[in-house]
Recover the amino acids of this structure.
């Protein structure tokens, strides 16, 4: 049997014993410790050496006084140490028998060093060192090596208590740090979950609002032209079906991502529409509603972060949805202005423009409602900004600035 194969199980058993002792009630452990100290102090009374030391029951009771206070050493460490400090020299002075080793003193010095404030620790250590030296000088006429043995024992017990105190403080600091990290992790998870829910809510709002608006416009126009212009009515109903299928396809994609996240615990997303899909969006709106939409681009286009691409698409989608639903416009203009550090997109219509908020003549209220709030939230999430209001030549205008990748960190910071 190798030394390593023997040593590893022994260490495991010792760790299990230590763990069991730590989880035991403190009074049980300290009572057992007091009984052990009393037993060690009583050995010389039960098995006396040959000599002139007198043995008496009074001496045994003094030995009890050096052990019994240890039961309360953790609840009242300094008072317990004071009690042991009184009985130990009394036992030495009574000399029936004298303590060969102050076991109780070693325990209380360790306890005081581990649990008491600095002033109490210093007073107790100095008191025991001075008291031990005076006691040996007056009663025992000890040899020099005995002075060294007793004083070194007291200093060793005190140093062990200080080491335990430092280790406990270090362990408490690690546990506190772990708790803080756990709270921060939980907070980050909750914040990420809230942001993801807000993103999904905005996506679903944009998809449904856009699709339903187009369907409502076509549904209202269909009955009017069904008799006079059957082909146009048929085109309107086809547009309703197309808008519904497109909305269902995008909703299935979002719900599929949600199911995949719940099953795998990941936040992977399927590709979402970006700036490249805006031409198709503009064409769909123009075909479905009859609204003339002009798409213009100035500057040099370049790649943007994926979420900024999605934000640009959703902003234009929501702005055109508001135009169809509320503006009573005949035309709209979508402009992309690319600069070195940002993309500025503007959606302007020739409709009736913003209306006054009821009960507040000083404030302008866009009839887009939650859609405009979503536009501002999308722009802010990308480090950009958004504004809306009356257009330069009337109508309504939405302008959003989205920073490019190089400028985004500064905008978010």
């Amino acid at each position: 049997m190798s030394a390593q194969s023997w040593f590893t199980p022994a260490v495991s058993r010792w760790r299990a014993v230590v763990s069991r002792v730590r989880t035991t009630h403190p009074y049980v452990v300290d009572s057992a410790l007091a009984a052990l100290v009393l037993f060690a102090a009583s050995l010389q009374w039960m098995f006396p050496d040959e000599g002139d030391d007198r043995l008496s029951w009074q001496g045994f009771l003094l030995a009890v006084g050096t052990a019994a206070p240890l039961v309360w050493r953790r609840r009242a460490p300094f008072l317990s140490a004071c009690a042991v400090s009184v009985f130990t020299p009394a036992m030495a002075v009574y000399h029936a028998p004298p303590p060969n080793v102050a076991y109780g003193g070693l325990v209380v010095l360790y306890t005081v060093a581990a649990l008491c404030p600095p002033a109490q620790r210093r007073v107790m250590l100095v008191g025991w060192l001075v008291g031990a030296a005076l006691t040996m000088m007056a009663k025992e006429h000890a040899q020099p090596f005995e002075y060294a043995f007793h004083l070194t024992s007291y200093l060793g017990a005190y140093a062990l208590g200080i080491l335990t105190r430092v280790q406990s403080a270090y362990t408490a600091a690690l546990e506190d740090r772990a708790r803080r990290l756990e709270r921060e992790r939980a907070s980050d998870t909750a914040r990420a979950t809230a942001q993801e829910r807000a993103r999904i809510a905005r996506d679903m709002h944009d998809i449904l609002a856009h699709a339903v608006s187009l369907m409502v416009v076509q549904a209202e126009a269909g009955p009017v032209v069904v008799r006079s212009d059957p082909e146009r009515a048929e085109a309107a109903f086809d547009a309703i079906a197309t808008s519904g299928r497109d909305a269902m396809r995008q909703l299935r994609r979002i719900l599929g991502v949600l199911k995949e996240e719940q099953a795998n615990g990941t936040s992977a997303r399927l590709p979402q529409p970006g700036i490249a899909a805006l031409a198709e969006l503009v064409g769909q709106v123009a075909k479905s509603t009859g609204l003339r939409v002009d798409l213009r681009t100035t500057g040099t286009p370049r790649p943007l972060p994926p979420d900024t691409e999605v934000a640009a698409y959703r902003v234009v989608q929501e702005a055109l949805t508001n135009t169809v639903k509320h503006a009573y416009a005949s035309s709209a203009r979508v402009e992309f202005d690319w600069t070195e550090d940002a993309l500025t997109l503007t959606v302007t219509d020739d409709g009736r423009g913003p209306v006054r908020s009821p009960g507040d003549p000083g404030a302008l209220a866009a009839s887009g409602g939650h859609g405009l709030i979503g536009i501002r939230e999308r722009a802010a999430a990308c480090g950009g900004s958004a504004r809306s209001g009356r257009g330069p030549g009337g109508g309504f205008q939405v302008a959003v600035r989205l920073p490019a990748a190089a400028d985004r960190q500064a905008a978010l910071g």
